[in-house]
Amino acid sequence: MIGVDAWDAERDARAWPGGCPVVAHPPCRAWGRLRQFAKPRSGEKELALFALRQIRQFGGVLEHPAESSLWNEAFLPKPGEFQDEYGGWSIAVEQFHWGHRAEKATWLYIVGCAPRDLPPIPFRPGRPTHCVRPTKSYPRLPSITKAEREHTPPAFAEWLVQVAQLCAKQNERAAA
User: Fold this and answer.
1) For the chain, which has fewer Cβ within 10 Å, the N-terminal or C-terminal residue?
2) How far is CA 99 from CA 91, 127, 152, 153, in A?
3) What confidence tens digit (pLDDT) does each residue in 97-115 have?
């Protein structure tokens, strides 16, 4: 994306120098509902805690699957709960509304932006054509691919960047 300085595995996100709000989607397989079947790489689970420290220091948004065990491990407020001591709060969204073929329930932890200041969350009518994994709600829908489970729809990525930009503006106002 234009204007985004992405730090991934190749650039080693742990070497990011900081200084501005973050959009973080650390590896989630060690934190998700099926974590007992996951085979995370060495140090991968700790990346979520690193990302969380960066967001608490510089502001921004952390994206993870709904019900991620990171919320309990790091004492993050669950969607609809209180703000934490860092001013962080959480919201639940479904990536379907940004163009994903499945609901892809997602939790966001945000520091530096008030809920009322979020960009509009789109509403997409209809139902998903696919599911992340078959459930009672979607027993007959085809499952999305592994790549689709890991990737973010471009419209959602743009929305997350807008949230981080709002966090930067609020941080600038607070510093002035």
Assistant:
1) C
2) 19, 11, 9, 6
3) 999 999 899 999 999 999 9
